[in-house]
Amino acid sequence: TLLSEGLVEEIGSPRTSKGRRPILLKLCGSRGHVLSLDIGLSNINLLLSDLLGQNCYSRQVSWNQKRDQLLPVLKRTIEDILSHPQQERQRIVGICLAIHGVVHKEDILFTPYYHLEHAPLKEELEQWFSLPVFIENEANLSALGEKTFSFDVSNLVNISVHSGIGL
Predict the structure, then answer these.
(1) What share of the chain is helix, strand, coil (3-state, %, to 5)?
(2) Helix (H, G, I), strand (E, B) or coil at 101
(3) pLDDT, greater one: 89 or 24
(4) Which H or E run includes 121?
(5) CA distance 150 to 51
(6) pTM tops 0.90, yes or no
(7) CA 24 to chain centre
(8) Distance of CA 38 to the CA centre of its chain
(9) Phi and psi, residue 37, nearest 5°
(10) For residue 50, which of 36, 31, 69, 37 has the smallest C-alpha distance?
(11) Are strands 43-50 and 8-12 parallel, antiparallel or unpaired?
(12) How many Å apart are CA 96 and CA 46, to the nearest integer?
């Protein structure tokens, strides 16, 4: 499926001394993009990156921390990105929301600065945009990014300092 959708490509088949020769694959970074939104205290930081994690576009949008205003701001911001003329070349394959608070199994349990407990952001955005949406704690996402792109280690502590401290 990934081959037929052009998201991966075959890059060769090395010789091996035993067994069947493997087929090596690599991500086609520019064939898909991920939209990440960090919902902070008074701003939403947006990052559009390719499948290899390269920054393609970033933007900051302010919001007033009112629960009923977040979804319209998110929809409008994402629609702006999707309607951008260059978007024809930048296929969005997923959306990730970074929450400053406690998230368990993509359910927002507690947020100290804005009241988003159990807000149906995932369901609403998936239905609106027909794209997979993932929700996670921002400090966890930061640690995952460090491990994936900077420090491939078995143990990692990541401290996120902003209007609060995340670990």
Answers:
(1) 25, 35, 40
(2) coil
(3) 24
(4) helix 121-129
(5) 16
(6) no
(7) 26
(8) 9
(9) -125, 115
(10) 31
(11) unpaired
(12) 10
Both structure tokens of 71: 């979804």
The residue type of 39 is I
**Residue labelled with tokens 């520019």:** 30
* Alpha-carbon dihedral angle through residues 5, 6, 11, 15, given to the nearest 10 degrees: 10
In angstroms, how far is the first alpha carbon of the chain from the final one? 37
Mean pLDDT of the chain: 89
CA distance linking residue 8 with residue 52, whole number of Å:
11
For residue 101, what pLDDT band results from cuts at 50, 70 and 90? Answer: very high
Six-digit token pair at 14? 């090395």
Amino acid symbol at 160? S
Q: Counting beta carbons within 10 angstroms of the beta carbon of residue 20, is it exposed (0 to 12), middle (13 to 18) or buried (19 or more)?
A: exposed
Alpha-carbon torsion 97, 99, 103, 108, what sign?
Answer: negative
